[in-house]
Design goal:
This protein is an alpha/beta fold. The chain has helices spanning 13-29, 52-73, 88-96, 119-127, 162-175, 195-204, 207-225, 240-246, 271-279; strands at residues 5-8, 33-39, 79-85, 101-108, 115-116, 132-136, 149-153, 179-185, 231-237, 251-258, 261-263, 266-268, 284-288. This is Universal stress protein.
Amino acid sequence: MTGPITAGVDGTDESLAALAWAAREAVRRDLALRVVHAWRFQPDTAPEVADREAQERWVRDAAEQAVATVTERHPGLAVTTDVLEGRPVETLVEAAADADTLVLGSRGHGSVVGFLLGSVGQQVLAEATCPVVLVRAGDKASSEVAGHEIVVGQQGDPEDSAATLRFAFETAAARGATVRAVRAWTLPPVFAYSPASLKLLDDAGGLEPYEKKALADALRPWRERFPDVHVVEHVEMGSAGQVLLSVSGRAQLMVVGRRAHRTAVGARIGSVAHGVLHHADCPVAVVPHD
């Protein structure tokens, strides 16, 4: 059974934009919407909500008001609301385990700064087992117009990007949008060539034809599965983050893969996802690799 679209809310404008995005996506994909508000008792707060019961009531009222706006806009949408006491990262990661997609809000101040991710957002992105979509305050449904594309990055072999491409094609099919599949390549150092890799490049006719064939091979099963989705294949020399951002002007959603890197201070997302999140001016979906 497919899980719900889950939105994490906390009363901020960013989280309300994420909730609105999640509701539209749930309607398009005929999925339920789950709204999760993670909170922790804060004893040093305003006197009227200084005790646990009053504070929980205030949190629940805020969550219910946000949901009321969504249900008024989408009367047929099945919505459940969970107000859960606990640490935000652990609560949201646990909610993601049962979700089709987790949607979060993030502060941003234009395309130069992009998404401003706090420690909660970074850890949830690195640890969630489902795709996580970041939405900024001010995101409007008007950005999801015909002609705007789902831009997805493809790297490595077909199996390396299967989850990322699946998410992009499913989203495009639900919206009637075009998928722009982007594969970036750079000149490798001479010592990276082996006799076997040199033969592959020679058979392909050079580096760029080799990269184009690699992208076509990765896309083939998804083209067959989603024959009505129009696809633009984009192969360009440069760093993956830079190439993706160069085509983001007409993107209604950017989709990138994620391999979490464990460090002494916790999990971190990869450089491509990190770069896109910090400079894209549209929602960004970060998809964990299978």
